[in-house]
Amino acid sequence: MVRKFSRLQLVLIYIVMVVMIIAYVIPFTLMVLGSLRQSVNFIPDLGYMLSNISAENFRYILQQALFPRWFLNSVIFSVIPVITQAIFCTLIGYVFARKDFVGKSVLFWIMVSMIIIPTQLMVIPQYIIFNRFDWIDRYWAILVPDLWAIIGVFFARQYLQTIPREIDEAAFLDGANDWQVFFQMILPLCAPAVATIATFRFIANWNDLFRPLIFMLSDTMFPLPVGLAALYNIKGNFGVQMAAATLAFIPTFLIFLLFQRYFTQGVQMSALD
Fold first, then answer.
1. For the chain, what is the mean pLDDT?
2. Widest pairwise Cα distance in the chain
3. I want to staple 5 with a disulfide (CB 3.0 to 4.6 A). Which of 9, 54, 109, 201 is the partner?
4. What is this structure's pTM?
5. Cα gap 77→96, rounded to integer Å
6. Number of domains comprising the chain
């Protein structure tokens, strides 16, 4: 049943939406305009920010010798977990959604309850373990913990519950095994859920500053956020900081635009259960 709103309610909804858009657009506009000014400090004057526009801040960042390495590290830290979680989270979600075994519900909700544990609380135990494995200042310290994610399993399981079981049963009657059903039928049907998991993971890992700052010691292992933060500490002006933020924002924005249709569909379908 579609709910109808009165004219007054629609006006109030539009006002709230406009206010929210302005609240998001103003900081983004200041970031882009600030990146085009060679200003040491922030000057809240739109006329001043629009005058003498220059790409010198971007040129300064892109000319840094380590910038390509930082970019490559960010790609590795972001893309590999996207691939592994798209497979493993969907596979584990498939088991919880389709298979019956003793303690399934208890195990699932115990696993989901672990989401409340802050990432910062796990850093010290992880550092001790990674140090014993000689993973400090290596890719493994970021990639191994991100092979799968609880929130991805939860999301995949919720989405899979919207797919009729008759599809699996028909495939089993035709002689397919579990692996064939999953990879040839379930995984393609889960494209919206996979796109949503991939979008969340890519954005989270691309913008991750905390974990690489702890586990990566040498500047050649820094991802883009850590490298640009270190660069700002050296150069230390507002224009360079805004240019760095703009460069770091572009890939996540493009990924969201690429998967937006699947992302929206996946969120809607997962909310139906």
1. 85
2. 71
3. 9
4. 0.83
5. 28
6. 1
